[in-house]
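Structure (tokenized):
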């Protein structure tokens, strides 16, 4: 019998974490590639499922769009209502592969069973800076070629998972949107306060994220902290810095209220305080723990710092990542607790 010759595969087997070179997959960067690179720059150490969920499919007719929306809702509400992240679209997987082997994307390995994680590479910095209003220096910091340690990678994944969940969950709420978002410790706020012994403490509040959520026409600023410190003394120190920052904002509000009570020429009310150029009149701190026991310990620590009026325990809102890890839509639902009681609260309340 004549031996049957097997046709070679048109797609060669490529290494996961070693680039084969742009000659393997010739790539001409398209607008969809720029959108994908921009999304990766906003969500460092994201995975392909998250990118596939957030990146628009493209221009399709209304009937087909409604069908895809309905199928997506069915998928995320399976498994007894807990929800599963939809799978990876084929075109997203293909573009990620081409961008990686072409040098514009980096791949990172977590644990053995973890998905491949993505960040932008240095060649993508000039592309993004040329097409979008983005800080090239910040992009370059994100694109540094390095193998992150386990502790850093875990914290980076927590930050990205919350950002991704908020991007998924907010559109499901009517009249809710992101008004502003400062990421990766880009906001630094000096705070000075007196200790009971008279000592002056100089601190700098550096949140992981500073976001403004617009809901029903009102923008509420929130500091976001993804918990990474295991020692409570350092966490307590950060709690105190936030507490005194909040008290200073409140004191400015009271002082301005007193000035408004004096008859003067009527004028527009100026903002009480500004942080990163954004007006702030009320603020809260969203603190995300890795697990429920850690969240309970943080709430207990916040109660110990409280005043008799229980004002401080309302400043901090706590949750743990497991509440929304498998169902990102839940991040806006009643999974948050203040320190003062055990009531579960929705984020938009």
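Design, position by position:
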């Amino acid at each position: 019998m004549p031996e049957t010759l097997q046709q070679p595969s048109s797609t060669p087997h490529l290494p996961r974490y070693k680039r084969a070179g742009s000659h393997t997959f010739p790539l001409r960067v398209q607008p969809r590639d720029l959108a994908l690179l921009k999304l990766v720059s906003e969500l460092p150490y994201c995975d392909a499922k998250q990118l596939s969920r957030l990146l628009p499919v493209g221009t399709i007719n209304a009937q087909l769009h409604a069908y895809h929306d309905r199928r997506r809702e069915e998928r995320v509400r399976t498994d007894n209502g807990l929800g599963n992240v939809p799978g990876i679209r084929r075109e997203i997987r293909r573009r990620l592969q081409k961008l990686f082997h072409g040098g514009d994307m980096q791949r990172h390995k977590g644990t053995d069973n973890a998905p491949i994680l993505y960040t932008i590479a240095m060649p993508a910095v000039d592309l993004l800076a040329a097409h979008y209003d983005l800080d090239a220096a910040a992009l370059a910091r994100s694109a540094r070629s390095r193998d992150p340690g386990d502790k850093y990678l875990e914290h980076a994944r927590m930050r990205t998972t919350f950002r991704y969940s908020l991007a998924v969950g907010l559109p499901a709420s009517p009249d809710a949107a992101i008004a502003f978002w400062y990421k990766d410790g880009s906001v630094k706020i000096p705070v000075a306060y007196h200790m009971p012994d008279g000592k002056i403490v100089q601190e700098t509040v550096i949140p992981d994220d500073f976001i403004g959520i617009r809901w029903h026409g009102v923008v509420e600023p929130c500091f976001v902290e993804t918990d990474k410190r295991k020692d409570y003394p350092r966490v307590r120190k950060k709690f105190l810095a936030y507490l005194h920052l909040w008290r200073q904002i409140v004191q400015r509000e009271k002082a301005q209220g007193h000035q408004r009570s004096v008859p003067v020429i009527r004028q527009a009310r100026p903002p009480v305080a500004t942080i990163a150029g954004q007006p702030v009149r009320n603020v809260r701190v969203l603190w995300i723990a890795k697990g429920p026991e850690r969240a309970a310990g943080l709430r207990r620590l916040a109660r110990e710092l409280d005043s008799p009026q229980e004002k401080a325990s309302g400043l901090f809102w706590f949750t743990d990542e497991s509440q929304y890890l498998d169902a990102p839509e839940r991040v806006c639902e009643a999974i948050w607790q203040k320190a003062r009681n055990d009531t579960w609260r929705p984020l938009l309340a």
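Reviewer-requested clarification: Confidence is low (pLDDT under 50) at residues 79-85, 258-271. The CA atoms of residues 90 and 224 lie 34 Å apart.
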